Amino acid sequence: MHSARYWAIVPAAGIGKRMGSAIPKQYLPLLGRPVVAHALTTLLQHPRIDGVVVAVDAKDEWWPAVAANLDTAKPVLRAAGGAERHHSVLNGLEMLRERAAWSDWVLVHDAARPCLSAADLDRLLAELADDPVGGLLAVPVRDTLKQTDTAGRVAATVDRSRLWHALTPQMFRLGMLHDALRAALERGLLVTDDAAAMEAAGFAPRLVEGRGDNLKITRPEDLALAEFFLARRAVSVAG
Ligand code: C5P
Q: pTM above 0.85?
């Protein structure tokens, strides 16, 4: 029987409006390397991952230099970016169709999450290896959550006991994710992550608890935080 292989798709075609910088956030320097290079290295160094597709905007001028500096023998393919994240992911999936099996696993990981750890990646692969649907890294919500009315006052306190933050990677079978994303797009649904497309198709993705430091660079202060997490990890590996 064909044993499933693993591929990664990294959507990297966003412009990162909330960062307010001239360069898209995935290319800002972090400990001397662009943000996107950090997670790509973690993905490419994992022995089970066979290759990566990166979705890049047509007018992007930074990707070629990043690609040239990735020290890997594995394929790193460029797909076209799309108008929204899910278009970019779908373009990546279309590109994988040519070289991967419909039943292969795909891990979709945001280019703007540089602190993915090898341990979290291992856990995700191990916990989902036999799962019929797939799932995602996530962390339980820890703050109390408020819902507002239209005047900016509290309308309700939300029960957080079953609420989680969805992180990436999100890991699904190539064919199932492709069909789910396609269908969501055709229905005009707003899906901000891959799991949401699977949910809309009637599946219940599994939550795998990950590390809270797998943050998505969104605001300027996030860069310093990511730098702190990565530098501390480098020290603990060396020590
Ligand atoms: O903007 P946000 O942080 O939600 O984007 C999440 C990820 O999706 C980022 O890595 C970003 O580059 C990517 N993205 C994309 N194509 C878009 C919009 C976002 O690949 N059109």
A: yes
